[in-house]
User: Which sequence fits this backbone?
């Protein structure tokens, strides 16, 4: 089943304690689309400027990502730059230049309008709404966001939460959104805001998947070195929706069970663990299916008990 | 199989965002002994002053904890007071008065000297050494510690690490001990310091069990409210050694496999989850076996995937 993904496409400038790199392919939709493409065909909705390098377009196209919904607008591509501090779990945004993303208001290609699985990756909630408005009968909609939108566009975000099946947030975002410091409370508070499922991603501590009646605690894949955490959450979200679409041939969203979502969260975790092993999409785009299955087996072995 | 536990026995004064309570039974050995006693007979090594309340002595005795190694010394019982901050994962020690613990140098009762399973709960490394010196042929020795000893008695602690099979530390302690911020690196660095196994307890994020060749990621039991985190690590350690002694009838430490230790870590996690639900040993001492098995089943259900 195809997956529709809307989000940002960026040129990043990233500094970590290891290295500094410029003109990297970034953005929530780039990471999510590549991740999802390991499991399902992807329909990308996004915008770039005239300066967008051909090599990045080729990289996306090489992974069976449909670029019919990729608009090239007059002006420059969205640019983001940030710096990671020593423990890699805190970062400072140095500059954000929305450029062509500012006024992006896409009309979805007709073939995209009936896509059953939708990921509203991190981008302005108004754009997430605008995209979802054009999907005729979505079966399962996943959204993610960031602290910036929780602060600046809370009303639009809260109304979005009533339209999606799952929200994926990290620890900082969930605290910003709910005010709760206890993660279990915070997860349940978000369920009350609308989505049937919530994923709380905790980086090196794994992820929690909540429904009203169930909880799944997914371990993190153990990594001794994290080279660049940029896009880990977007990769996770792309892995979740991509895997879910690959195992569900359902016409009915009630068939999308908690058991299937557990597996989707495991695959999201695995894809994210690769993503942080190199800058930009360096590690991710070169992945093979055996690489993924090997980590699946490791993750399984390290979390099971009789 | 019996378990020998040495550690502190304290009278605590604890303040949390919920409540403030005085004259509580505390100390690493108290928590660990009660936790271990749900699985194995316990031999306690510790000291109290003449002010130690009879009701606390009775509480320990009621749980099949041998008090033959409990010394009553002239003077006052060790006292600790601390305050927990809003998110419950940071605390400030307000006062520590070692009192009778200061010069405690026990001679173990003869029957204790051949006990195969030993927990050196958090106390001065010199006292941990002194106790271990008197155990004739220990089969499996677990130690825990705290940041205070890592700072003040690092040399003695490092030499202790070469004498124990397992060290149990939390995130703050492991960073203090190794300087590493990455938890996977930190765990492996401690393995190089001596112990064959390391448990890194992460509170609401669960625990990691390391050996040179294996890793087990144990989820936390989900709690919406933590009333008093005091003693959670000690309870965890007591649960680990108590459960291990209950399933191992081994004369040979090589039979203590990683698979058995996984289960011990799961039971340690469960006991600790009860401990934090009330001040002092309020919840722990009243536990039943069905309470424990119920949480085992929950923890199993929330962590498994196909």
Assistant:
């Amino acid at each position: 089943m195809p997956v529709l993904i809307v989000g940002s496409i960026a040129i990043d400038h990233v500094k970590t304690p290891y290295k500094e790199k410029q003109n990297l392919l970034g953005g929530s939709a780039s990471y999510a689309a590549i991740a999802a493409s390991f499991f399902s065909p992807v329909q990308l909705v996004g915008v770039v400027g005239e300066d967008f390098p051909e090599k990045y377009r080729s990289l996306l196209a090489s992974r069976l990502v449909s670029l019919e919904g990729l608009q090239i607008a007059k002006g420059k591509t969205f640019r983001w730059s940030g710096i990671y501090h020593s423990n890699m779990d805190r970062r400072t945004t140095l500059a954000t230049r929305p450029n062509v993303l500012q006024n992006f208001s896409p009309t979805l290609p007709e073939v995209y309008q009936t896509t059953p699985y939708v990921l509203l990756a991190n981008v302005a909630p108004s754009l997430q709404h605008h995209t979802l408005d054009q999907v005729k009968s979505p079966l399962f909609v996943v959204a993610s966001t960031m602290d910036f939108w929780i602060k600046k566009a809370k009303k639009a975000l809260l109304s979005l939460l009533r339209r999606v099946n799952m929200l994926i947030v990290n620890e900082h975002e969930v605290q910003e959104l709910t005010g709760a410091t206890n993660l279990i409370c915070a997860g349940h508070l978000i369920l009350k805001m609308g989505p049937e499922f919530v994923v709380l991603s905790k980086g090196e501590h794994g992820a929690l998947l909540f429904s009203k009646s169930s909880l799944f605690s997914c371990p993190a894949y153990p990594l001794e070195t994290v080279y660049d955490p940029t896009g880990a959450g977007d990769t996770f979200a792309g892995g979740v929706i991509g895997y879910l679409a690959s195992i569900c041939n359902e016409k009915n969203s009630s068939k999308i069970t908690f058991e299937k979502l557990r597996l989707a969260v495991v695959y999201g975790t695995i894809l994210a663990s690769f993503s942080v092993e190199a800058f930009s999409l360096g590690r991710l785009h070169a992945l093979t299916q055996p690489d993924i299955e090997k980590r699946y087996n490791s993750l399984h072995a390290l979390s099971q008990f009789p």
